[in-house]
Write a structure and sequence with these properties.
The complex is a heterotrimer. Chain A is mainly alpha-helical. Chain A has a single domain (3-224), classed as MetI-like fold (Orthogonal Bundle), CATH 1.10.3720. Chain A contains 8 helices and no strands. Chain A has helices at residues 3-49, 54-69, 72-85, 92-118, 121-129, 134-164, 176-187, 190-224. The model of chain A has no long low-confidence stretch (mean pLDDT 92). Chain B is α/β, with parallel strands linked by helices. Helix content of chain B is 36%, strand content 24%. Chain B has helices spanning 57-64, 96-104, 121-131, 137-150, 166-178, 196-211, 223-229, 247-252, 257-271; strands at residues 19-28, 31-41, 46-50, 72-77, 80-81, 84-86, 91-93, 106-109, 184-188, 215-219, 232-237, 240-245. The longest helix of chain B is centred in the last third of the chain and has 16 residues, at 196-211. The radius of gyration of chain B is 19 Å and the shape is globular. Chain C has a single domain (4-226), classed as Orthogonal Bundle (MetI-like fold). Chain C has 8 helices and no strands. Chain C has helices spanning 4-46, 51-66, 69-77, 89-116, 119-126, 131-161, 173-184, 187-216. Classes of the chains: A mainly alpha, B alpha/beta, C mainly alpha. Chains in contact: A-B, A-C. The structure holds adenosine-5'-diphosphate and magnesium ion.
Chain lengths: 225, 273, 227
């Protein structure tokens, strides 16, 4: 490896850091947006799934299976390029948020569903017996317990999402990976820049991992209790 | 100690039963669990239901709260048909909201307590009044503190259920049901999941509630308690009411051989070391 | 809804896309095989008593799990060119995806081994089995039950992740779809069509996972960190 590349990278470091910092901020925004979107979709659909409508069950099933069976990149391209071609033009960032939100929503629907199923039936019955409707029982009694059960899965999802947002670079969303490609195009210092980007991602994902480990330990403890 | 006005049932015609169970059948698939139950319960009456395991006691109680839907037959609470209404073509299921309204008048205490583990003791008692009756938080809190005092757990109000003993949890469950000011209380083997030394504290609370005039349906294996507290004891077997009568008669001079057999077996078990 | 012209175009695209789907499957199989072998080595290395070796495996796993597949792919494809190692796109994708999944698979192997080790081994030896017999008849069958569902899940996510290889122009389904799109500029139709092909490949696998989970019971499933 030519040492010259590293020297040049060292001199350009302030530039790199500025550009990558801006990208990282955007990565956080896309991650947070997609996360909230996915949580809302997942909670809503998991709640609707507890209802009695057969049609709704089937529709949710199809949504979950389709969005989980197709690469998220395809979904991003359909939203950004596909919708754009039929006149619905979305900017890269909203496209990415919607894409990751819908994709993650399918995943979280399953996660929340398993959480809801893990709550003892007696909880719903006790809630009904004090006069709650099924909706209230779900909202005030079952969901709060279900969410606790699935917190590790949600943290896990957040870590995965953070890394997956790198794919938003393919629809030109100016996030961390996209800015990295720009720098590489300009300087050809691919090794140095992508390693630096890896450090940025690690700096964001390792704290999330720490949270995850704590949640998993907590979950294991409460299972034993 | 008194559970106050909450226990006095709504004024009705003196002869009008609070609960009327009319030829109720329940099937689980091919399993015929309730085979035509007829039973009237007057306001303020305490009825104990005894019988061997699997005889349908729990199922009957759950039908009275419409946690189970009778396959056939009807149940009226205060003259109002439970869980169903007359539609254009026969009876149809009540909507969720109306069913919930009917259930507010019926408290249920479960064998396994079913306290809400994510809420404190006090919140367990408050959540019904706040979310269902739309009582203000302050008032619900006051009501909860009062009821917890009466079941002897005022000092535990900020604890979580998992920190309580079984007996304490069951007393909280009773307070939770009472917070809705029901006119009828259902107890399904409320002490069966408890260690023997904790049974008494729960029975005491139930006895006090009975003394206050609450209408109660009590499924139990505590024969002494049934004898002391009930106005009437019902013996069920094989999904049917085999025999019923005042406790003195049913325990003192059971008429049906199955009742005699059951009582002999139960009392023998109890006197065994 | 689909006009005759579009239908004619789809007929024109379909053979190309089918060939590309075959390449996707090939890439999946190679990367999976690489990951399964590397993963086993990393799992064993991670359990080694040599501190440096287990530490190295730990660092590898953390690095892989903490960074996007895309960046790993670019490091291998573009990064290595700066040291004059030029790897064709397809091979680069196989290496990057294999190395990526190896880290996750190592965790699955480790959990599978830990979950049945010690007590079970001792019990087997207590009834007179030799070490090899204990491994073959007791440990291995149980470990397989534990690792099979997550390992099948990896096949599904790996299949989908091969689409990332299109970003280094490796020949597979996603890239073919991109090419056709730039030629005809009908992204909606092309990506829906290619999406349907991904679905046709991965949905049967996910039915398979569900079957395995039902068959082996959910109780023994691992709470794995599969991000
Ligand atoms: N949800 C259910 N599905 C199928 N069978 C049930 C169900 N609940 C109760 N049973 C059956 O109904 C019968 C009566 O049960 P139960 O009412 O619980 O009896 P008891 O409370 O008197 O012990 C038993 O044979 C039981 O196995
Ligand atoms: Mg019972």
């Amino acid at each position: 490896m030519s040492g010259g590349g590293w020297v040049r990278a060292y001199h350009l470091l302030p530039d790199f850091l500025g550009m990558l910092w801006a990208g990282a901020v955007m990565t956080v925004i896309v991650t947070a947006g997609g996360f909230v979107f996915a949580i809302v979709v997942g909670l809503l659909l998991a709640a609707l799934r507890t209802g009695r409508s057969r049609l709704l069950h089937s529709l949710i099933y199809v949504y979950v299976e389709v969005f989980r069976a197709v690469p998220v990149l395809t979904q991003l391209f359909i939203i950004y390029f596909g919708l754009g071609a039929i006149g619905i033009r979305l900017n890269p960032i909203p496209s990415a948020v919607i894409g990751f939100g819908l994709n993650g929503g399918a995943y979280l629907t399953e996660v929340f569903r398993s959480g809801i199923e893990s709550v003892n039936r007696g909880q719903t019955e006790a809630a009904l017996s004090i006069g709650m409707t099924r909706t209230k029982a779900l909202l005030y009694i079952v969901l709060p317990q279900a969410v606790r059960v699935v917190l590790p899965s949600i943290a896990n999802f957040a870590i995965g999402l953070l890394k997956d947002t790198s794919l938003a670079s393919a629809v030109a969303a100016p996030e961390l990976s996209f800015n990295a490609h720009m720098l590489v195009d300009r300087t050809f210092l691919s090794t140095q820049i992508y390693l630096l980007v890896a450090v940025f991602y690690l700096a964001m994902s390792l704290p999330l991992s720490a949270v995850l480990h704590r949640l998993e330990r907590g979950a294991a403890r409460s299972r034993r209790a | 100690m008194s559970f106050s006005a909450t226990a006095i049932p709504a004024a009705t015609d003196a002869d009008e039963p609070l609960v009327r169970i009319q030829s109720v059948h329940k099937h689980y698939g091919a399993l015929h669990v309730l085979k035509g139950i007829d039973l009237d319960i007057r306001p303020g009456e305490k009825v104990s239901i005894i019988g061997p395991s699997g005889s349908g006691k729990t199922t009957l109680l759950r039908c009275v709260n419409y946690l189970e839907r009778p396959t056939r037959g009807q149940i009226f609470i205060n003259g109002e048909l439970l869980g169903q209404k007359q539609g254009r073509r026969g009876f149809v299921e009540l909507d969720d909201r109306s069913l919930a309204r009917q259930r507010t008048g019926i408290g249920m205490v479960f064998q396994r307590f079913n306290l809400f583990p994510h809420l404190t003791v006090s919140q367990n008692v408050e959540i019904g009044p706040v979310k269902v009756l739309k009582v203000s938080r302050a008032e619900a809190r006051e009501r909860a503190i009062g009821l917890l005092g009466k079941v002897g757990l005022a000092e535990k109000r900020d604890a979580y259920p998992e920190m309580l003993s079984g007996g304490q949890q069951q007393r909280v469950a009773i307070a939770r049901a009472l917070a809705m000011q029901p006119t009828l209380m259902l107890f399904d083997e409320a002490t069966s999941a408890l260690d023997p030394e904790l049974v008494g504290e729960v029975l005491n609370v139930m006895a006090q509630l009975a003394a206050d005039g609450m209408t109660m349906m009590i499924v139990t294996h505590e024969m002494q308690f049934a004898e002391d507290v009930s106005d009437r004891v019902i013996f069920m077997d094989g999904g049917q009411i085999v025999e019923q009568g005042p406790p003195s008669r049913l325990f003192g001079a059971p008429e049906h051989p199955r009742t005699r057999g059951f009582l002999r077996a139960v009392l023998q078990k109890r006197t065994m070391p | 809804m689909i006009s005759p012209q579009t239908l004619a175009l789809i007929r024109e695209w379909l053979p190309q896309l089918l060939v590309a789907a075959g390449q996707t499957l090939q890439m999946t199989v190679w990367a999976y095989a690489l990951g399964a072998v590397m993963g086993l080595l990393i799992a064993l290395g991670g359990m080694s008593r040599q501190r440096w070796l287990s530490g190295l495996c730990r660092v590898y796993i953390e690095f892989i799990r903490g960074t996007p597949t895309l960046i790993q792919l670019f490091l291998i494809y573009f990064g290595l060119t700066s040291v004059n190692i030029v790897i064709p796109g397809f091979q680069a994708a196989v290496i990057a995806l294999g190395a990526h999944y190896a880290a996750y698979m190592a965790e699955v192997y480790r959990s599978g081994i830990v979950a049945v080790d010690s007590g079970q081994r001792e019990a087997a030896q207590a009834i007179g089995m030799r070490r090899g017999q204990a491994m073959a008849y007791v440990i291995f069958p149980q470990a397989v039950r534990i690792i099979l569902p997550p390992m099948t899940n990896f096949a599904i996510s790996l299949l989908k992740d091969t689409s990332v290889a299109s970003l280094i122009a490796a020949p597979e389904l996603m890239m073919r779809a991109n090419d056709i799109t730039s030629e005809y500029y009908m992204p909606m139709q092309v990506y829906l069509l290619s999406g349907a092909m991904y679905f046709a490949m991965s949905y049967p696998l996910s039915l398979g996972v569900r079957y395995l989970e039902r068959r082996f019971g959910r109780g023994r499933q691992l709470n794995l960190n599969l991000a």
